[in-house]
User: Which sequence fits this backbone?
């Protein structure tokens, strides 16, 4: 499966453009959550996401990390996508503007930003991934090839033109990438990505309807409370009879089998 990523500065999205993307095999769009300076289009983040969702595309979002900014900057960007069904968040780690930080401080800043992003309720329920490039991550002036975050999903910027996520140059303790950005700066302002088999499989998993399980558990809990209340009122020990336990167990088992 293929993915497009774009910022607020990309060309406006239209239904025709999005249908063409789908026809070309793009099933995922990764959109930057940002309010740009006044000389750039304002409020485009939500417009882009809503347009993609209306077209039946799956949407991820990425959050640019400024090493010099406060945590409020992360909160502001998350607020822009509040209540939208974002599948996965990615923290964009490639800030070259900050100077004078060592690897320890950079690690701490990334860890704090990830912690904030992890609180955001994504529809996929996965921890926030990291977007970065080998050139940045290995630089001694920045991450120093830290392996602190190797358990996080990696979206790797590797502009080799090879449309295969398995063709990946390891760094930072990562032996594979989940998404590979293989080509950037398209005429429409987007970049091109290919997903690994594992990431594509996650996108294709049907959403689980937890309603029946929740209802069955609520009924079981209510039944338990009622039966225990009867025992207490009659002055009998709180233990339930075997037939009642079997009835409740049977109902829960049937819900699991549905």
Assistant:
């Amino acid at each position: 499966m293929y993915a497009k990523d774009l910022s607020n500065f990309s060309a406006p999205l239209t239904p025709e453009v999005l249908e063409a993307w789908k026809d070309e095999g793009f099933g995922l769009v990764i959109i930057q959550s940002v309010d740009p300076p006044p000389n750039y289009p304002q409020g485009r983040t939500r417009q882009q996401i809503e347009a993609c969702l209306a077209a039946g595309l799956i949407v991820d979002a990425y959050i640019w990390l400024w090493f010099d900014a406060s945590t409020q900057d992360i909160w502001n960007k998350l607020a822009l996508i509040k209540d939208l069904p974002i599948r996965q968040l990615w923290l964009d780690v490639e800030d070259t503007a900050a100077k004078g930080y060592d690897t320890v401080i950079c690690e701490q800043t990334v860890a704090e930003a990830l912690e904030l992003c992890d609180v955001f309720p994504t529809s996929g329920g996965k921890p926030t991934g990291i977007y970065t490039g080998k050139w940045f991550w290995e630089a001694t002036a920045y991450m120093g090839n830290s392996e602190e975050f190797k358990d996080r999903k990696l979206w790797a910027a590797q502009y080799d033109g090879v449309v295969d996520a398995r063709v990946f140059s390891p760094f930072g303790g990562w032996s594979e990438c989940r998404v590979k950005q293989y080509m950037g700066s398209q005429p429409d302002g987007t970049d091109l990505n290919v997903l690994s088999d594992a990431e594509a499989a996650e996108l294709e998993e049907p959403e689980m309807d937890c309603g029946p399980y929740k209802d069955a558990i609520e009924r079981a809990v209510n039944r338990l409370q009622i039966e225990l209340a009867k025992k207490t009122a009659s002055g009998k020990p709180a233990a339930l009879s075997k037939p009642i336990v079997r009835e409740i167990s049977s109902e829960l088992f049937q819900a699991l089998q549905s």
Observations:
- Residues 211-233 form the longest helix (23 residues).
- The longest strand covers residues 26-32.
